[in-house]
Design brief:
Elements: H1 2-11, E1 20-24, H2 29-45, E2 48-55, H3 61-77, E3 81-85, H4 88-95, H5 99-118, E4 122-124, H6 129-142, H7 146-149, E5 155-156, E6 164-166, H8 174-184, H9 200-215, H10 219-248, E7 249-250, E8 253-255, H11 256-260, H12 264-276, H13 287-297, E9 304-307, E10 311-315, E11 319-322, E12 333-336, E13 343-347, E14 352-360, E15 373-377, H14 378-381, E16 385-388, E17 395-397, E18 404-406, H15 407-413, H16 418-421, E19 426-429, E20 432-436, E21 453-461, H17 465-469
Parallel strand pairs: 1-2, 1-4, 2-3, 4-6
Antiparallel strand pairs: 5-6, 7-8, 8-11, 9-10, 10-11, 12-16, 13-14, 14-21, 15-21, 16-19, 17-18, 19-20
Length: 470
């Protein structure tokens, strides 16, 4: 089985030499298999492994046992382990969501926090073939489209920042995992709550899948195979949607003639992508809302449509746009010429200002880690610096090698409302956005051990003369 997983890792290009990884390990069979596999691959790939165990504060002594077991196993393998204690029940109550969802959110935040702390760019999870089959079946029963059928992918980038999620066991069955652990003589923890059918996934696992395997013992494998085929088609569809979207969208309006000329699958996907750029209520855009939007496309000019998130659309002669759409206001544009020994202050016009200075790097000087102070390697910038609002063609780099992401795509992924995007100040070098002020920075131009000159930029609140006197 280890050879099979190694081939899968190579085929999907999940690992690279010198990778720093964060592993989610609960102590259960699946995650212990993941831990053993990556420990076995550690030398081959020169991996740096860091384990995260999330204690949900729900199962009392049993949860304490799982945490202690995980720490002991990691100690035996000489792998660092960090235990997070999260009051999931309290979070679920505060956020008015289910316990399962609160637990998923908590784990996601813990994995991400540890990845940032240790500088890891990849998070490894232990989802396997049976999990994939459950996911596909769950989505089918709930109602889903092609993208939902694709299920989980072996490699994804679900975070606004360039940190990947890997699933090296996604094609391995639960039975293969248990057999592997028996062969290795590896113990694991059993979560008794998985035996209850209070949660939908447990019901599918404990009641529905045994019935399906009576019809066909390979039912789980066939559902997982279907998900891979759907993922391939969805990937092809995504490229077609991107091309059609670029032809149909004009600023904050969308051309009705282009949309109505598209085949039905493309029409639906392009429409959804456009609507989601404005609505902060993605999950509430139902089939009925989409049908109403199609009616607006073919309706008379002057008609309007109200959608979740306070979005009102207006049908004009040859486009659909937001009813409150207005020509873009003139934003700030300020060219920068930083000088050694001087500090330049720039008002952003919203009660905040930027302090910009240029200085020599001092030996072993720590890089600021707070949200409001950013350092850049001045010698890597190479283009004229500006503080301004967005332009067409602006982009961020999402990897040290220079991989790019359109600024517009970042705004959508970060759920920044469309009405605010023209007002957000940017620190730029040409079309490269070094810092979306108050949000994220590009991966290039970062300070490293070779940096000689630092461009320091600090976001501050402006203080009025009256406040200063007080």
């Amino acid at each position: 089985m280890l050879q099979k997983i190694m081939r899968y890792v190579q085929e999907e290009q999940l690992l690279a030499q010198g990778d720093r990884l964060v592993l989610g390990v609960s102590g259960g069979a699946d995650s212990m298999c993941l831990l053993l596999v990556l420990a076995a691959l550690k030398k081959q790939y020169d991996l740096s492994l860091n384990v995260v165990h999330v204690h949900h504060g729900i199962r009392g002594a049993q949860a304490d046992r799982d945490a202690s077991f995980t720490k002991a196993q990691c100690k035996k393998l000489q792998i660092p382990c960090r235990v997070f204690k999260v009051p999931v029940l309290e979070l679920a109550k505060e956020q008015k969501i289910g316990v399962e969802e609160a637990g998923r959110n908590a784990r996601r935040e813990c994995f991400l926090e540890e990845a940032r702390r240790v500088g890891a760019k990849k998070i490894c999870l232990a989802h396997h073939q049976d999990d994939q089959a459950e996911t596909v079946l769950f989505r089918l029963l709930r109602g889903t489209g092609l993208r939902g059928l694709a299920g989980m992918t072996p490699l994804s980038y679900p975070f606004p920042e360039p940190i990947a999620v890997l699933r090296p066991l996604l094609f391995v069955s639960r039975e293969e995992i248990l057999s592997f652990l028996r062969e290795q003589g590896q113990a694991y923890c059993v979560d008794e709550t998985n035996e209850t059918n209070a949660y939908t996934r447990n019901f599918l696992r404990n009641e529905v899948f045994p019935l399906l395997t009576r019809v066909n013992p390979k039912a789980a494998k066939h559902l997982a195979d279907l998900s891979r085929q759907a993922a391939d088609v969805a990937s092809w569809m995504e490229a077609a949607v991107t091309q059609a979207y670029s032809q149909a969208v004009c600023g904050e309006a969308i051309k009705t003639d282009v949309l109505l000329s598209l085949p039905a699958p493309l029409l639906q996907e392009v429409s959804l992508r456009w609507l989601r750029t404005f609505s902060g209520e993605e999950d509430r855009l139902s089939g009925a809302h989409l049908k109403a939007f199609f009616g607006l496309l073919s309706g008379q000019a002057g008609r309007t449509l109200c959608l979740p998130g306070g979005l009102t659309l207006l049908r004009e002669r040859d486009v659909v746009c937001r009813k409150d759409f207005s020509p873009r206001k003139e934003g700030i544009t300020k060219k920068l010429t930083p000088l050694f020994g001087s500090v330049e202050e720039i008002s952003l016009g919203d009660g905040r200002k930027l302090k910009i200075s240029l200085k020599e790097r001092e030996k072993e000087e720590p890089i600021p880690k707070n949200k409001y102070t950013k350092w850049f390697d001045y010698d890597k910038i190479g283009q004229e610096l500006s503080i301004r609002t967005r332009n067409a063609g602006d982009y961020l780099t999402i990897s040290p090698e220079g991989g790019k992401k359109r600024l517009q795509d970042y705004f959508v992924e970060a759920h920044i409302p469309a009405s605010e995007r023209d007002c957000i100040p940017l620190l730029t070098a040409g079309a490269l956005v070094l810092w979306v002020v108050g949000f994220r920075t590009s991966e290039t131009c970062r300070v490293d051990e070779k940096t000689r000159r630092i461009l320091a930029v600090e976001l501050q609140e402006e203080i009025t003369k009256e406040e200063h006197r007080k």
